[in-house]
TrEMBL record:
Lineage of origin: Bacteria, Bacillati, Actinomycetota, Actinomycetes, Micrococcales
Domain notes: The N-terminal region contains the highly conserved SGGXDS motif, predicted to be a P-loop motif involved in ATP binding.
Source species of the chain: Microbacterium luteolum
Keyword ATP-binding: yes
Gene name of this polypeptide: tilS
Record protein name field: tRNA(Ile)-lysidine synthase
Functional description taken from the UniProt entry: Ligates lysine onto the cytidine present at position 34 of the AUA codon-specific tRNA(Ile) that contains the anticodon CAU, in an ATP-dependent manner. Cytidine is converted to lysidine, thus changing the amino acid specificity of the tRNA from methionine to isoleucine.
Length: 330
């Protein structure tokens, strides 16, 4: 028998490891754009899932943002069907806040979530690679978004409905997915947006990372991915500490929630700030910026009688020994 190409073996192993987290016979959804990354993921999933009697459905989202997008989506679905996968194409209208990229992403995840519910899937598989992770970390660093952004994308997470979102290829280089497609006689689609330098991610991919590799030596993408993994481990440890602490220091207040000033003051700044952000996010659905968080923390560490601090969706004020967060009037 001919030997298995290294790229095929690497990606199949990555998918096999991800599917091992699911019960045998579970249905899975694969997000399929038709590009090399998602095509390699779909093909490897079709191969590995068949051995565990796991039905696979591919979902291709036609955002309608490019000429011939319907033909591109239909072509991806035909390839998936040829792999023995049930293939769905869903057309969406892209609109909303944050520009076309953010709106397209929100629409895509909404479609994937709905499709998973329709077919009774336990997990959605996404084709993000190590290169995507490195780009995400660099963009987060450039924007000063803090540790949450520098953690990049999680290889696995579970949403509030119990649906698992898996990224089996997060440790695989992008070039490996192309090698997989070549070895498997798959013809991937090349998204022209991936070469459009109007997008910051494209500039990072085509200019910034190559310059870093040239000036600092090879291995930059792997180093950035390792950084994301380490920060994610730290964040998980902090989250565990917050959940252990928060039940003892938080009380419900009229139209809001309150936190013990003494307990916040007893914690180091990193944990104190995380508790503040966690309380506001969980109670009011608002993500505080670094500046807003530090200003609220001053009510604990540097209080001189200052009044309420207006925040998105709520306000914070110190009353006696409590830091009280109250919903803003609508």
């Amino acid at each position: 028998m001919p030997s298995l190409k290294p790229a095929v073996a690497e990606i199949r192993l990555a998918v096999r490891s991800a599917l091992a987290e699911l019960a045998e016979g579970s249905t899975v959804v694969v997000a399929l754009s038709g590009g090399a990354d998602s095509l390699a993921l779909a093909a490897a999933t079709a191969f590995e899932a068949s051995k565990r009697r796991m039905p696979v459905t591919s979902v291709t989202v036609d955002h309608g943002l490019q000429d011939a997008s319907a033909e591109v989506a239909a072509r991806a679905a035909r390839i998936a069907a040829g792999l023995g996968i049930e293939a769905l194409v869903v057309r969406v209208d892209v609109d909303g806040d944050g520009g076309p990229e953010a709106a397209a992403r929100a629409a895509r995840y909404r479609v994937l979530r709905d499709a998973a519910a329709d077919v009774g899937a336990s997990a959605v598989l996404l084709g993000h690679t190590l290169d995507d992770q490195a780009e995400t970390v660099l963009l987060g660093l450039a924007r000063g978004s803090g540790a949450a952004s520098l953690q990049g994308m999680a290889p696995a997470r579970e949403d509030e409905d119990g649906l698992r979102w898996l990224r089996p290829l997060l440790g695989v280089r992008r070039e490996t997915t192309r090698e997989f497609c070549t070895a498997s006689a798959l013809d991937p689609w090349d998204d022209p947006h991936n070469l459009d330098d109007r997008f910051a991610r494209v500039r990072v991919r085509e200019t910034v990372l190559p310059v870093l590799e040239a000036e600092l030596g090879p291995g930059i993408a792997e180093a950035l991915a390792r950084t994301a993994e380490q920060l994610r481990e730290d964040a998980e440890a902090f989250d565990d500490m917050i959940h252990e602490t928060i039940e003892d220091i938080v009380e419900h207040a009229e139209a809001g929630i309150s936190v013990s000033v003494a307990a916040l003051a007893a914690n180091p700044a990193a944990l104190r700030n995380r508790i503040i952000r966690f309380v506001v996010d969980s109670e009011f659905g608002v993500s505080l910026t670094r500046t807003q968080t530090v200003e609220v923390a001053r009510l604990v560490t540097d209080w001189t009688g200052q009044g309420p601090i207006d925040l998105p969706g709520c306000s914070a004020v110190r009353r006696g020994g409590q830091l009280v967060f109250t919903a803003s009037a609508r």
